[in-house]
Design a protein that fits this description.
234 residues; alpha/beta; Carbamate kinase; two-stranded antiparallel sheet; 8 helices; globular
C-alpha cells in the first residue's frame, strides 16, 4: 500500500475519443478514480501534460521559437489542471492547483512546504506548468515534484496496460514486461519517460509503475499493491 503518490497523466489521455482538447467524460472518469483513492486517505499529487492542447517540441518544429513554444505548452498544462480541479471539486474532492510560473489570479505558486501541508490535510494537489523552465518535459516535472514531496511512487497512467518490448499499438507481437530494473530499461532503450526524468528517478530510488488508467479501479488496485501494469525499480 502506498500512502503518498504522484500520479502522472498525459495531456493526450484527456482527449478521450476526441482528436483535440478535453473529453468531459474522460476527465470526469479520472476524477471519480481519484476520489476513490481520496476516500481512503491516500495523499495524492498530480502532474498533467499539455499535449492535447499544445506541445512545445511540435510547436518549435513548426517555426515557433523553442523557448516560446515550451512556455505555450506550460500554459496548456495549466488549462488541463484547471479542468481536472473543476472535475474533482464538482464531486466534493478538495484540491489545490499550484503552478511553477506565477498566475496568482487562478492558482497558487508552487511552494514545497505548502504543497506538503495540503497533502497532509487530505487535499489533492495538482502541479502545473512543468518545472517552470523551457527544455524540460512534464515527465521531468513529475519526477522532480515526487522527490520534493517525498512521494512513495510515481504512477504513470497511460492508455496501455504496462511496458512492452515494442509499441503494442504498432506491433501486436510485442511482449509485456511485468517488472524490470532501471538498468534493463535503459539498456533496452524503452521509452518510459524522457532520459532526464528517468535518470532522476533512478538516482533517487523512486519506483515508477506504468499502467492503464482507462480501466475502472486500476488506479486503486495499483495503490493497494496489486500486480497491475509494469513496475520499474532498482
Amino acid at each position: 500500500m502506498y500512502n503518498r503518490i504522484l500520479l502522472k497523466l498525459s495531456g493526450e489521455a484527456l482527449m478521450g475519443t476526441k482528436g483535440y482538447g478535453i473529453d468531459s467524460n474522460r476527465i470526469n472518469n479520472y476524477a471519480l478514480e481519484i476520489k476513490n483513492l481520496h476516500k481512503n486517505k491516500i495523499q495524492i499529487a498530480i502532474v498533467i501534460g499539455g499535449g492535447n492542447i499544445f506541445r512545445g517540441v511540435s510547436g518549435s518544429s513548426e517555426g515557433v521559437d523553442r523557448v516560446q513554444a515550451d512556455y505555450m505548452g506550460m500554459l496548456a498544462t495549466i488549462i488541463n489542471g484547471l479542468a481536472l480541479q473543476s472535475a474533482l471539486e464538482n464531486i466534493k474532492v478538495p484540491t489545490r492547483l499550484q503552478t511553477a510560473i506565477n498566475i496568482e489570479a487562478i492558482a497558487e505558486p508552487y511552494i514545497k512546504r505548502r504543497a506538503v501541508r495540503h497533502l497532509e490535510k487530505n487535499r489533492v494537489v495538482i502541479f502545473s506548468a512543468g518545472t517552470g523552465n523551457p527544455f524540460f518535459t512534464t515527465d521531468s516535472a513529475a519526477v522532480l515534484r515526487a522527490i520534493e514531496i517525498n512521494a512513495d511512487v510515481i504512477l504513470k497512467g497511460t492508455r496501455v496496460d504496462g511496458i512492452y518490448t515494442e509499441d503494442p499499438e504498432l506491433n501486436d507481437k510485442a511482449i509485456k514486461l511485468d517488472s524490470l530494473s532501471f538498468e534493463d530499461a535503459l539498456r533496452l532503450n524503452l521509452k518510459i519517460m524522457d532520459t532526464t526524468a528517468f535518470t532522476l528517478s533512478k538516482e533517487n530510488n523512486l519506483p515508477i509503475i506504468v499502467f492503464d488508467m482507462n480501466i475502472k479501479d486500476n488506479l486503486k488496485k495499483v495503490v493497494q499493491g496489486k500486480k497491475i501494469g509494469t513496475k520499474v525499480f532498482l
